[in-house]
Design a protein that fits this description.
Structural class: alpha/beta
Radius of gyration: 22 Å
Number of strands: 18
Strand content: 15-25%
Bound molecules: iron/sulfur cluster
Largest sheet: 8 strands, mixed
Distance between the termini: 22 Å
Strand order of the largest sheet: 6-3-2-9-16-17-1-18
Number of helices: 13
Helix content: 25-40%
Shape: globular
């Protein structure tokens, strides 16, 4: 018997379906989505509460996964007798940022930081119960800090703050948009778990090194209204000797103090921006994913990856950029490593697309056989997540691709 994991693959719509007969409809991407789901949703029993983990897309991002695909996921779960809910967590910080484009035009960014704002952007992008047929639940609470601490023997972490609400569900279906990512190289099934199912605490630990601290030389209570104290959701900040002090034993690393402080550089934090260390961030994503899978049970989770509209940047950036490869299709599996590896391999085996560079010139498309994400970034490596996931025992990178 083969030890390879099964990955089901439906290629993207390759012919135009101009007539409405059954044969032509089988080339339709939504019909193909349903055929993949019929293969993988064997874990759902009638009456199961099923969380559909997805990403609603940041405001002004125009490449996020269309709601039509998620509606298909919801319908497939209902057809098995499951009770679906769309589940998601909040991003770092608490406040929307206003950017003035011109005198009478501003854009507002950072809508995924609190439940109220996140819900608005979800609805704007078509993810409302009236359209999708399932309610939305933010599994990390109103402010993204409600967690259950899970112990692991990870590469970097020994414990992870997993979103507490995840454990209200019997089963999960992880629906991911496969695309690039500026630090973890790519986003797929593993990153949906390792970033999308944890609270702000471990999102901070992915992006920054060490604790937040007050710069007592710069913090000046005569230049502020102590906004940091007002912003802190857990009362971790107080004033001592004319300066703010953070009690790191209480801090949940939401970064609201940082965003609210009007005095530049009064609060220190160290970015994990060194390109030579992005492999560490990718490994931390996998540690987080390990905590989610180990605590929820791998047998209770299924994965579907949509490899459409694939830019180098992820769905949480506001400038999504042009796709760097053509659509690759829909993938489904029980194994999060195998499904992500299959998407990366499909990316390598596809021709690159020309993109417009900053000088307004079309670039020469990269050839079949070249790892485009790695080649175009010069510092990212798609093997980081895959290798770390193998090390943590999350699945297999050996797979059998079954074409649907
Ligand atoms: S950290 Fe900022 S908001 Fe808080 S007391 Fe200092 S200057 Fe004021
Ligand atoms: S001290 Fe910690 S919990 Fe409080 S606002 Fe700052 S980051 Fe958030």
């Amino acid at each position: 018997m083969s030890n390879k994991s099964i990955v089901y693959w439906a290629p993207p719509n390759e012919i135009s379906a101009i007539s409405y007969d059954k044969e032509k409809m089988l080339s339709n991407n939504l019909v193909k989505t349903r055929l993949i789901l019929d293969k993988i949703l064997d874990h759902i029993n009638s009456g199961d509460k099923v969380g559909v983990k997805l990403h609603f897309g940041e405001a002004h991002n125009t490449r996020y996964l269309r709601h039509d695909y998620i509606r298909e996921v919801v319908e497939a779960i209902k057809s098995k007798g499951g009770i679906p809910t769309l589940i998601e967590t909040q991003g770092l910080g608490m406040y929307i940022q206003q950017i003035n484009i011109s005198e009478n035009y501003s854009v507002f960014l950072g809508h995924r930081k609190t439940k109220a704002d996140h819900e608005k952007i979800a609805h704007l992008h078509g993810f409302s119960e009236s359209i999708i047929g399932a309610p939305i639940k933010f599994i990390d609470g109103e402010k993204g800090i409600e967690s259950k601490i899970i112990k692991i023997d990870g590469i970097h972490f020994k414990e992870v703050h997993v979103a507490a609400g995840l454990f209200e569900y019997d089963k999960i279906v992880v629906a991911s948009h496969f695309k690039g990512h500026p630090q973890a190289a790519f986003g797929g099934a593993l990153k949906q778990l390792g970033v999308g199912c944890i609270t702000k605490h471990h999102k901070y630990a992915l992006h920054f090194i060490g604790d937040l601290s007050i710069n007592t030389e710069i913090c000046n209570i005569s230049k502020c209204s102590q906004e940091c104290i007002e912003a802190c959701p857990v009362g971790a900040i107080k004033i001592e000797n004319e300066s703010a002090v953070i009690d790191n034993s209480l801090c949940v690393y939401c970064t609201a103090c940082l965003e609210s402080c009007p005095v530049r550089k009064a609060i220190n934090r160290t970015f994990n921006t060194n390109e030579s260390e992005f492999n560490i961030m990718a490994e931390k994503v996998i540690d987080n994913a390990t905590a989610v899978i180990n605590s929820f049970g791998p047998e209770n989770i299924r994965f579907i990856n949509f490899a459409f509209d694939i830019p180098l940047m992820c769905d949480c950036v506001v400038n999504a950029n042009m796709p760097i490869i053509p659509d690759l299709g829909i993938f489904g599996s029980k194994d999060p490593v195998a499904i992500d590896k299959a998407c990366v391999d499909a990316e390598i085996n596809a021709p690159g697309l020309p993109i417009l560079n900053e000088d307004g010139q079309w670039t020469e498309p990269l050839s079949i056989g070249i790892e485009k994400i790695n080649a175009m970034s010069n510092y990212l490596d798609t093997s980081w997540q895959i290798d770390a996931a193998i090390k943590n025992g999350l699945g297999s990178k050996e797979y059998e691709l079954v074409k649907i």
